[in-house]
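thread: overnight batch results

M.L. [08:02]
morning all. the overnight job finished for the chain we discussed friday. pasting input first so we're all looking at the same thing
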Amino acid sequence: MPATLQNALLWNAYARVYDWGVNGIGSKTVGAGYVPYAEMMGKAVNHVSRSRADRLLDLGCGTGNFPKALRTNGWGGQYFGVDSSPAMLSRAKGKNQDSRDAFFCETFEQFTGRGVKKNGQYDVVSALNSLYVLTDKAQIVSVLNGIREHLVDGGQFMASILHEIDPENMLRAQFGLPRTEPKNDMASALKLGFSHDPLLTLRLFLPGVITKILGASSNTLLDKATWTRLIESAGLVIDDAAGYYGGANYGEPLPGTFFLAHKA
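M.L. [08:03]
and the structure it wrote out:
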């Protein structure tokens, strides 16, 4: 099966189960099913609220949890979401009916590479747990340069970046347990999960497996220092780079870095 078709099918499946992991089955509350995800989303929402942004571009909007969280928090600006998965966008549009929201089915490079004439510039560009889909450094640099072009002077770039695959510590963060030495051991993670919350572990298992498969096609699980250099090479000034326990499920990398930068 061609990789592009395989990934398309995986994203379609991922769209169906993603919210089970982060929000919980049957829940309409963003982050209700996974504490680290809720904390990451809360950090992003608070930053947008403090920035008083009128226009926000969200790269990799997925199932639309971020715009829903923004609206729930009372944000009144214009939101533009970009994702290359029609299945993800279908769910995003279904849960976000605000007339100020717009969604585009494009890759990051397609959107950021075509200039700003069609949609103008933005006060904030966000990429929450999404840049790991880029497959090489040249592609990352291209997208980061496009992001800078799309920002107004002084505009802010906000990104949660995933670094390493560490399933056990993702579960430990969910259960409030102390962090242990990183190890990519699914069996150990499942043993821990079933001993604490079997139902939650089962709910997270499928999206976790899909994330690992998708991540295997990418070589961009880069460390914090490398991402710092890449962001700065695009002419963005980093204001903060705090660690966080983000990710949608135990299959995603831990720890991560929440970057805040601006266009000088």
